[in-house]
């Protein structure tokens, strides 16, 4: 399905009522007097195809929730404005993400843009918005790759672009107490590719290696690598020879499958395996069968989180149950962040003084202080300009009941308000 085809269908859904009202207006004076309020155009850039497509599976459900809850209208200064959501596919490619963002800005003339799904999507979209003076709200990109990967200056920040998610520092601080409970003498193997996340995490001055070493762990880093990779023999060989028993990495699901299959073939059996991007999705884990048991997940959000949507009033559990009932698929971490993205978009618009002025929309976005389904979003707190930090806990995959796998929370050291419901375990082979 092309971007344009999807756009036409979505416009009919979200702005049909406004179009119907406009068609009934008489010509002449009454047309001018009863002119429909400005239609707000929201651009959405997401990886619908390619290796990051796993990240988009919740969006149709979320858009349907937005439609049902709002009726395709947002109230700004007492006036109801119809809105339309124009979707573009980044194809999991940063260059394509830039191109379609330019299309949204220059051809569609959108009022603001929303995006998500790793720095490979978020950063190029944000850069184009910053260059062209269009407000941009994003999540699902760790804060350091988002900020420093775009050459952000902590003294100044940016004018138009804002992102909320967990930070690399937060992730490291969340992983260490969990590791120390299981493997206090661990040797960590870094599986860090040549991309935004991998470069940020592997930085020998400000990344993970110096922090982990200060905590008493040894770090083995075989170096950056490009993806897709036909195999991970070099990395596995380096890990085996160095006695690595903890894997810490960040790979898309297909790449992790290649690595994990290679580890099995070569008899590499680490005690703890954490690989960001890959292990968050039950649909990516299920093909591994029992080899998924015990894999570690950094849990950005779950059905166990004690937060409520400011848009629909649903609890985390209620949103997960509704998603499973509507889709027939198991909930997973990104669901809350897809939902929260539009919580912030709509809250920003509601607080905008002048919807005809992009700077006014930007000012409302900058002033965001909102209790969302993923926790409070407050851009005044940082840790970097234009960013907001969200909570993080640690989970593991276990044998499921209703579904083949179940995610359980095993360590909440950094966010005790999220309840633990299982004890951490080493991987059993």
From TrEMBL:
Keyword terms of this UniProt record = Amino-acid transport, Signal, Transport
CDD domains referenced in this protein's UniProt entry, alphabetically: PBP1_ABC_ligand_binding-like
* Leucine-binding protein domain sequence ranges: 39-402
What PROSITE patterns does this protein's entry cite? TAT
Q: Which SUPFAM superfamilies match?
A: Periplasmic binding protein-like I
Q: Which Pfam families match?
A: Peripla_BP_6
Q: Which family does it belong to?
A: Belongs to the leucine-binding protein family.
> What is the name attached to this protein's record?
Branched-chain amino acid transport system substrate-binding protein
């Amino acid at each position: 399905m092309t971007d344009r085809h999807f756009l036409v269908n979505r416009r009919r859904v979200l702005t049909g009522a406004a179009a119907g009202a406009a068609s009934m207006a008489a010509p002449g004076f009454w047309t001018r007097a009863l002119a429909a309020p400005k239609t707000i155009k929201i651009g959405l850039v997401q990886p619908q195809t390619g290796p990051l497509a796993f990240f988009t599976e919740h969006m149709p459900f979320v858009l349907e929730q937005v439609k049902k809850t709002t009726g395709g209208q947002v109230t700004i200064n007492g006036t109801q404005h119809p809105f339309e959501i124009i979707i573009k596919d980044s194809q999991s490619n940063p260059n394509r993400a830039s191109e379609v963002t330019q299309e949204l800005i220059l051809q569609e003339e959108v009022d603001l843009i929303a995006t998500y799904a790793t720095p490979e999507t978020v950063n190029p979209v944000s850069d184009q918005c910053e260059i062209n003076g269009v407000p941009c709200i994003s999540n699902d990109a760790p804060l350091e790759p988002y900020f420093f990967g775009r050459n952000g200056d902590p003294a100044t920040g940016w004018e138009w672009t804002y992102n909320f998610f967990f930070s690399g520092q937060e992730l490291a601080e969340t992983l260490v107490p969990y590791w120390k409970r299981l493997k206090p003498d661990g040797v960590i193997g870094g599986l860090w590719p040549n991309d935004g996340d991998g470069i940020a995490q592997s930085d020998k001055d400000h990344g993970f290696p110096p922090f982990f070493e200060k905590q008493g762990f040894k770090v083995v880093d075989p170096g950056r690598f490009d993806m897709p990779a036909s195999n991970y023999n070099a990395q596995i060989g380096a890990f085996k020879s160095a006695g690595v028993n903890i894997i810490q990495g960040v790979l898309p699901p297909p790449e992790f499958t290649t690595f994990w299959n290679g580890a099995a073939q070569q008899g590499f059996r680490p005690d703890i395996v954490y690989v960001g991007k890959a292990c968050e999705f039950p649909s990516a884990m299920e093909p591994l069968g029992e080899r998924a048991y015990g894999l570690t997940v950094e849990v950005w959000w779950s059905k166990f989180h004690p937060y409520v949507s400011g848009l629909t009033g649903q609890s985390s559990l209620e949103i997960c149950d509704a998603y499973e009932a509507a889709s027939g698929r198991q909930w997973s971490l990104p669901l809350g962040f897809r939902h929260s993205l539009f919580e912030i978009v709509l809250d920003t618009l509601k607080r905008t003084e002048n919807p005809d002025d992009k700077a006014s929309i930007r000012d409302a976005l900058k002033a965001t202080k909102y209790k969302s389904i993923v926790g409070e979003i407050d851009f005044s707190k940082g840790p970097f300009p234009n960013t907001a930090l969200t909570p993080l806990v640690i989970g593991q995959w276990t044998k499921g009941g209703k579904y083949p796998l179940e995610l359980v929370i095993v360590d909440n050291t950094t966010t005790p308000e999220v309840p633990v419901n299982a004890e951490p375990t080493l991987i059993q082979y």
